[in-house]
Amino acid sequence: MPEPTTVPVQIPRELRDRIQERIKGTGFASVDDFVAFVLARLTEVAAQDGEPLSARDEARVKDRLKALGYID
User: Fold this and answer.
1) Which is the most buried residue in 8, 32, 41, 48, by most CB within 10 A?
2) Which alpha helices (H) appear in the chain, and where do they start and end?
3) Is residue 72 within 8 Å of 66, Cβ to Cβ?
4) Helix axes 55-67, 31-49, angle to 10 degrees
5) Residue 57, C-beta contacts closer than 8 angstroms, at least 6 positions apart
6) Could you give the angle at the alpha carbon of 31 between the alpha carbons of 50 and 45, nearest 5°?
7) Cα-flanking dihedrals φ and ψ of residue 68, to 5°?
8) pLDDT in tens, 41-65
9) Closest Cα partner for 65 from 44, 37, 24?
10) How many CB atoms are located within 10 Å of the residue 20 CB?
């Protein structure tokens, strides 16, 4: 039997609800699509340098996500 192409990721319900509201009218078909996009972008940023995100870069990403209302 082939391995599934996706795996579940758990996020707080409140965060899911906020994301659902924010993605209305965007190109994202679902919260899953949005979360996959954000995580892919974060890993691309880290891969550009071939190193993990620095503490400074991680803080910048978190600050931006907070400003956008995606995390508290």
Assistant:
1) 32
2) 13-23, 31-49, 55-67
3) yes
4) 150
5) 45
6) 15
7) -85, -5
8) 877 765 666 666 678 878 888 888 7
9) 37
10) 13
Predicted confidence band of residue 6 (pLDDT cuts 50, 70, 90): confident
Task: Give the Cα separation of 51 and 54 in Å (integer).
Answer: 8
Q: Could you tell me if 64 and 9 are in contact, meaning their C-beta atoms sit under 8 angstroms apart? A: no
Name the token pair of 70: 């995606």
53's CB contacts (< 8 A; 6+ apart) are 42, 45, 46, 61
Name the token pair of 26. 């965007």
- Give me the residue label for tokens 């620095």: 54
Distance CA 9, CA 34 (A): 12
Say what the pTM is.
0.60
